[in-house]
Automatic annotation (TrEMBL):
It comes from Microbacterium terricola. This is Peroxide stress protein YaaA. Pfam families: H2O2_YaaD. InterPro entries: YaaA (IPR005583). It comes from the Bacteria.
Length: 251
């Protein structure tokens, strides 16, 4: 049993890769194979129609090339998920610059929650794709219906000692952590001069990426929310218990 960290994906991704095409059977949480196959099939089928795909995926004129990317999901080259995603969170994590031991730690402890594949391991090899949590693929029910129960069951089946949930609310809806699993949801906040605590947007993502980088570097053994708070204090991070089931991380 070990701690799991759940990360959201990013809309922006690196193109290309040097890995072999997607092998669904090699991904973390293998029990999600049926949902992965159904979602991939629906997304590839949708992408046979450029105009329809652009509408469903809400692509602008300069983003139409993403339809072709989706058509090649099963044959395109891959790279580790933690290297595939870009954007504020993943730039702050900067996994490529971590030493091999820290990267292996990410592979054991971090899942990135993608819309077409569900949660995948940080080092799982995935292709580029375009699909957000709110899309509705023809031939499938809403993605929350496809994924929520299956992901909750798969995470519980992994028997983590503790789950640190850093996902956005849209991705939490695609797989809530079961109530039987010890977990905490992290909100990034700032304290104003008036003493009020406010949620952050842009710095929310940066703080989460920096947090995971620090965890991968320190590699602490954390088995509870209290243990996370103790580690955070020792690491010079400001965090405290928030609403029930939540931790507030100050940025």
């Amino acid at each position: 049993m070990q701690m799991l960290i759940l990360l959201p994906p990013s809309e922006t991704k690196r193109a290309g890769g040097s890995g072999a095409p997607l092998d669904v059977s090699a991904l973390a949480l293998p029990g999600l194979a049926p949902q992965r196959a159904a979602t991939l099939d629906a997304l590839i089928a949708l992408s046979a129609d450029d105009e329809l795909a652009a509408r469903v995926l809400k692509l602008g004129p300069t983003q139409r090339d993403q339809v072709a990317v989706n058509r090649e999901l099963r044959t395109a080259p891959t790279m580790p998920a933690v290297d595939r995603y870009t954007g504020v969170l993943f730039d702050a994590l900067d996994a490529a610059s971590l030493d091999p031991t820290s990267r292996r730690w990410l592979g054991r402890h971090v899942l990135v929650h993608s819309a077409p594949l569900g949660p995948v391991g940080a080092l799982d090899a995935i292709p580029a794709y375009r699909l957000g949590a709110g899309a509705r693929l023809p031939g499938l029910p809403a993605l929350t219906t496809v994924w929520a129960d299956a992901v909750s069951t798969a995470i519980a089946g992994a028997e983590p000692s503790f789950v640190l949930d850093l996902r956005s609310e849209a991705y939490v809806a695609l797989g809530p952590v079961a109530g039987t699993v010890p977990s905490v949801y992290v909100r990034v906040v700032s304290g104003g001069a008036d003493g009020a605590v406010r949620a952050l947007n842009h710095f929310n993502k940066h703080a989460k990426g920096a947090l995971v980088r620090r965890l991968a570097s320190d590699r602490p053994r954390i088995g509870s929310a209290r243990g996370f708070l103790r580690w955070a204090a020792s690491a010079g991070l400001e965090a405290r218990a928030g609403a029930r089931g939540e931790i507030e991380l100050f940025a």
